[in-house]
């Protein structure tokens, strides 16, 4: 894995876009008619949701490649993707709670998407814990890849089961409804977060790769 | 195919020889059910309402003991490795162990039903259906559970890792089994039992195939 | 015969050759098959007795052998009784292994290793934990193996046992080959050749 300036460039670009998009969305964009200022969280929440799913999907791809190719690079990328994915998912849950309290009066309202995300935090976070307790790097790579594949395949099942479980109680209740006019800050933030995420995964993967080289030296 | 038969014979023998432990695990499960009632309070209506949840939580917690133990004998003296070197099919070893574990968990679940009936005043006339749900739930816990037990039996902090990895994964099993059991106890006016049973079946089909495919990578160097 | 100090890599070498452990680099061919590409073929022809007995403590001696024989076929199943007798375990065949002494476990582990009709037999410190009658049983088994043309790789640091029965020897030092030659030329470490 070569040392490169590109991730830092991505980080800088991503942060810049996030600052721009967030400022626009949080301060400049018009107030939403029904929900008020609370709805502005959507400018951060929706990009986080997209990128969390993206990170975990990338993790799934890395897991498959790690199992079928003997290249430790994919295990390093898996570690990076898992960590970033878990952090984003945890942020998603926090954002959901921040939105839910003023809107519904409770911190958690068992929305299927957010509840599934909470389960994901534990599922993929558990894999990061697994990595900590396995000393042999080859076993660590194989096992976390296997665990990541099983966890990812489980995601739709978890989502559907939670959806049915909750369907008797309440309907959709998350800050996802977006008026057409407000797309731009959303898109800017989405791309900002995407670049930031790519930069972070890249840097984290390189760190994992270097650590592994040190282990096997 | 004969590998599967040989492996199954081995696992059933091991379970049979360790039957004293089964009693201990049952005691743990029953104690858990008792503790739930202490935590919630002696209000009979509340207990009856939540009985299905308590039953499955008790079974879930007990399952970690059974699953972890199922690999203790295999790793103690590297017996599993010795079998793999014969060579024995890793897939056959997995399915045999997962089946044996599923049966053990089913027996445990069925044994906890009377405890549930007594402590929570929650019973159902539809016994075959209830046993069916317990079997599907036990199988759903066993498929990924056996795979993760194999993994964690060789890692450090194994007692913490197994539940940590397994519990998020089997959320669908917990939800579906609790709902289905609850419907059997309290009645099913809208005919939802079918949907939840289907969810359990789907979960089982997906995980029994997927984990069977991946087991080889987990136990081989 | 493979010998060397503790930690020199004898056990690892045997495990890699038996495909029980993976090698980071390099290749090897055992019984005519590559250990990486044809793992199943190697396993069919190789038997390993490692440091761990591979036994189930909860099962009896006979059950342990029966379980292994179940994967090997009817020919192996027929050998179970004879092996129990050959290793002096016949009168305790029904007892659980957890009640066995270290020496008896070793005998059972040896019996289990020989259940397979292997071309190559890898033994890691087989004389450890055995008593003098056990030594004789093991020597008899090794003679029988040689008589039917099997290759035996014996890892031991007890040079006297190896020198008598083995044809050639290698000495390992910190994972590297330090010496190889006829077994009778092997000397104690540090002594002049």
Work out the helicity level of chain C. 25-40%
Shape of chain A: flat
H and E string of chain A: HHHHHH
Average the pLDDT over all residues of chain C and give the rounded result. Answer: 86
Class of the largest domain in chain C in CATH? Answer: Alpha Beta
* Contiguous runs where pLDDT drops below 50 for at least 5 residues of chain A: none
Q: What is the second-level CATH architecture of chain A?
A: Up-down Bundle
Text of the CATH class of chain A: Mainly Alpha
Our measurement of the CA-to-CA distance between the termini of chain A, rounded to an integer number of angstroms, reads 16 Å
Structure annotation, total helices of chain C: 7
* Helix-strand topology string of chain C: EHEEHEHHHEHEHEE
Secondary-structure-based class of chain C equals alpha/beta
Which parts of chain C are unreliable, with pLDDT below 50 for 5 consecutive residues or more? none
Query: How does the major sheet of chain C shape up?
Result: 3 strands, mixed
**CATH-derived architecture of the largest domain in chain C:** 3-Layer(aba) Sandwich
Structure overview:
Chain A is mainly alpha-helical. Chain A has one domain (6-216): Four Helix Bundle (Hemerythrin (Met), subunit A) (Up-down Bundle), CATH 1.20.120. Chain A contains 6 helices and no strands. In chain A, helix 2 crosses helix 5. Chain A is flat, with a radius of gyration of 19 Å. With 221 residues, chain B is mostly helical. Chain B is built from 9 helices and no strands. The relative contact order of chain B is 0.14. Chain C folds into 2 domains: 1-49 and 120-193, Rossmann fold, CATH 3.40.50; 55-117, no CATH class. Chain C is 39% helix and 18% strand. Chain C is built from 7 helices and 8 strands, in the order E-H-E-E-H-E-H-H-H-E-H-E-H-E-E. In chain C, helix 6 links the parallel strand 5 and strand 6. Classes of the chains: A mainly alpha (217), B mainly alpha (221), C alpha/beta (193). Chains in contact: A-B, B-C.
Give a summary of the structure in a few sentences.
The complex is a heterotrimer of chains A (217), B (221) and C (193). Chain A has 217 residues and is mainly α. Chain A has helices spanning 6-28, 42-68, 72-104, 112-132, 137-166, 183-216.
């Amino acid at each position: 894995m070569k040392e490169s300036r590109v991730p830092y460039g991505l980080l800088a670009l991503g942060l810049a876009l996030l600052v721009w998009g967030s400022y626009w969305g949080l301060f400049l964009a018009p107030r939403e008619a029904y929900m008020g200022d609370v709805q502005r969280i959507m400018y951060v929440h929706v990009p986080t949701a997209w990128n969390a799913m993206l990170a975990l999907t990338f993790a799934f791809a890395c897991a498959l490649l790690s199992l079928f190719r003997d290249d430790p690079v994919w295990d390093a990328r898996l570690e990076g993707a898992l960590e970033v994915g878990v952090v984003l998912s945890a942020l998603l849950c926090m954002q959901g709670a921040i939105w839910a309290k003023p809107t519904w009066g409770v911190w958690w309202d068992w929305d299927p998407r957010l509840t599934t995300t909470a389960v994901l935090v534990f599922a993929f976070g558990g894999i990061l814990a697994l990595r900590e307790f396995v000393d042999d790097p080859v076993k660590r790579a194989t096992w976390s890849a296997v665990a990541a594949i099983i966890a990812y395949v489980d995601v739709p099942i978890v989502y559907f089961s939670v959806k049915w479980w909750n369907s008797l109680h309440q309907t959709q209740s998350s800050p996802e409804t977006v008026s057409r006019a407000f797309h731009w800050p959303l898109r800017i933030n989405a791309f900002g977060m995407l670049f930031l995420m790519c930069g972070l995964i890249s840097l984290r993967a390189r760190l994992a790769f270097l650590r592994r080289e040190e282990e096997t030296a | 195919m004969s590998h599967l038969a040989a492996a199954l014979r081995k696992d059933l023998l091991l379970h049979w020889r360790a039957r004293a432990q089964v009693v201990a695990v049952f005691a743990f499960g029953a104690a858990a059910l008792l503790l739930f009632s202490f935590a919630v309070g002696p209000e009979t209506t509340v207990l009856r309402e939540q009985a299905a949840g308590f039953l499955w939580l008790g079974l879930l917690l007990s399952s970690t003991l059974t699953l972890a133990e199922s690999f203790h004998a295999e790793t103690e003296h590297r017996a599993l490795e010795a079998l793999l070197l014969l060579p024995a099919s890793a897939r056959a070893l997995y399915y045999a162990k997962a089946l044996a574990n599923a049966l053990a968990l089913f027996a445990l679940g069925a044994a906890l039903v009377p405890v549930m009936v007594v402590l929570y005043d929650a019973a159902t006339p539809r016994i075959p259906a209830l046993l069916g749900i317990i079997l599907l739930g036990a199988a759903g816990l066993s498929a990924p559970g056996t795979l993760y037990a194999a993994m964690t039996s060789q890692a450090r902090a194994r007692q913490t890792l197994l539940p940590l990895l397994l519990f998020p994964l089997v959320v669908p099993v917990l939800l579906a089994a609790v709902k289905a059991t609850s419907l059997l106890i309290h009645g099913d006016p809208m005919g939802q039992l079918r949907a939840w049973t289907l969810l359990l079946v789907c979960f089982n089909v997906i995980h029994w195939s997927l984990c069977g495919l991946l087991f080889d990578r987990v136990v081989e160097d | 015969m493979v010998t060397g100090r503790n930690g020199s890599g004898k056990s690892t070498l045997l495990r890699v050759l038996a495909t029980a452990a993976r090698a980071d680099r390099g290749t090897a061919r055992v019984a005519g098959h590559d250990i990486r590409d044809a793992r199943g073929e190697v396993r069919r022809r190789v038997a390993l007795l490692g440091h761990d007995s591979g036994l189930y403590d909860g099962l009896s001696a006979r059950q342990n052998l029966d379980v292994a024989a179940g994967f090997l076929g009817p020919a192996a199943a027929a050998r179970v009784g004879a092996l129990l007798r050959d290793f002096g375990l016949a009168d305790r065949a029904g007892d659980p292994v957890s009640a066995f002494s270290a020496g008896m476990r070793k005998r059972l582990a040896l019996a289990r290793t020989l259940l397979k009709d292997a071309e190559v037999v890898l033994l890691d410190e087989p004389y450890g934990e055995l008593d003098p009658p056990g030594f004789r049983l093991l020597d008899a088994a090794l003679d029988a193996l040689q008589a039917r043309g099997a290759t035996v790789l014996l890892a031991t640091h007890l040079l006297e046992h190896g020198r008598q029965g083995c044809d050639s020897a290698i000495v390992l030092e910190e994972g590297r080959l330090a010496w190889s030659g006829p077994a009778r030329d092997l000397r104690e470490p540090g002594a002049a050749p």
